[in-house]
Amino acid sequence: MKGKKIDFHISNWIKMAILLNIYDMAVVAGSYFLALWIRFDCVFSRIPEQYLNPFMQYYLIHVAVSIGIFWAFKLYRAIWRFASYVELFRVVMASFISGVVNLVLMRALAGRMPITYYILGLAFQTFFMIAARFGYRFARLLYMKRHVDDGAPRVMIIGAGAAGQMLLRDMIEAKEISARPVCLIDDDKNTWGREIEGVTVVGGRNEILASVEKYKIDKIYLAIPSATPEQKRDLLNICSATDCELMQLPGMYQLANGEVTVEAMKKVSIEDLLGRPPIKPDLTDVFAFLNGKVVMVTGGGGSIGSELCRQIAAHEPKQLIILDIYENNAYDIQLELKEKYPDLNLVTLIASVRDSRRIFDVFKTYRPEVVYHAAAHKHVPLMETSPCEAIKNNAIGTYKTAYAAMIHGCRRFVLISTDKAVNPTNIMGASKRLCEMIIQSFDAMIKAGRAGSMPQLFTHEGMENADKDGTGSVYRQIKTEFVAVRFGNVLGSNGSVVPIFRKQIEKGGPITVTHPDIIRYFMTIPEAVSLVLLAGTNAKGGEIFVLDMGSPVKIDTLARNLIRLSGYVPDVDIKIEYTGLRPGEKLYEEKLMAEEGIQKTENDLIYIGKPIPFDTEKFLASLEQLMLSAYSNKADIRERVEKMVSTYHPEDAGEKAKIA
What we know:
alpha/beta; Rossmann fold; 3 domains; 9-stranded mixed β-sheet; 21 helices; 22 strands; elongated
């Protein structure tokens, strides 16, 4: 087109291929001439014409055929700075076939040539081809050994397998040598004492600590992508006892794609030290259950609620409703989902679950078929100082939302509960146990055909009264299934210890731990939410699902590992202070009450706790009085809760702290 410049830019690899072509032409012709010259004592005049003339007549044909063979073996498409035994094999085979072709060609067209002509010619050709292609790597290795910056970080690589070798090669051949590999660690005894790219395998994992000190290691790279989470945890726990920065490959796909480079390494996260496989349940049933349905998430802007929204949005619901009292969080997840799922029918509502009129109006307008109830006050110490708020928001808010769901045709109501509801010593845990009992009460009354006997709780004139005509017809087709899912702490959630510890480290410390022996169960947010969705999908109604959280983690150990992962030394660079158990806090959390049994499900990570029997009618009768007491801010609210939740013992936390 007129006025448009034509780009004659040639890629670097094409330039390199052209140069190698020219070089190989010279090598093919020169190698066999050199062989002929050496055969006759390195004197050109002594070469008989019966040998020289055929060579001069047919060498161009040999060169042309050889170059075609080299192209067929892809010798001009390889990245020679990363050349390995595969490329070496290709060069040798291509050169050998070229030699065989020359032998056949000369025998057919020119007759007999000296045997040394073929042998030496092939040897010279192969040598010069290999030298040109692998010489850069050898030169780079020598350069690194002589010119590496003495101030560059000294690196230990754990893993002398394929990933470790690729990583080591990338470090050696980097244009800017900013890190120096000085030793390798591998548990395979056959590798001990041997070298890879000039770097020695000094031993197995038992040599990590000694080698860090001996070789003055600054960084440790974990290059075993096939290691199980338990194996990785054991290695990282050893490494975290050093002051070195820890890096690792994210997964096997880097090895499969040939992307094992320093740039592909990521910092070891605290999640890597949990020591269990990442939970990746099959969500096929979840997709079938949520696809095409109207789904609502209360508390949808929180850490758990927002992740619920993300995963639900990926399962193509008919409509997703985010409901939250805090507009900033709701707005953030709204923007995120609109950008990622532009075709999603998304509704974001600001509302409080404590406002029964607003909740009734939301359910009447949108008619959600599935509700995930994540709205709750969760901060234990804050709720201890504001116990009535825990009851208003958690217990009464859950009741009002569940009642609205029941009346307006919701198919399934899933309560997000917590392990703090087990034998609670704090009002937050007790309020969540009340939530579980509320869910069990709804399920029991619906199955008994007595949904109309459920009291409708409100603290104002009941404009939203469900049975407006007084006939009770609204209660006759109730089919809502109520379930609860109980799990422990989630890493990275609002108010969890890890973000708090990170902020304290950024400020230079100290890190505050309540007690040196305090332990907690941990799970990542996506893991917990995936299991919540799966449990809620397979529910029959009335269950309290318990998620397998793995082994408990000592918070003190968690804090120390996080300090090390941040590049500091515990108690030296960052101090750890023990502040004592806070009001209502326990040394340990339980997943099931002593009185509960446990029942397996088809999923090994999800169990069902057998609910503790309680008098449903007595409980429901007490609930209205509890609501009035909470809204009146009665000082004896804990005593009232203790009468309703038999496992709630608020004095236990203080007693356990004294014993410890």
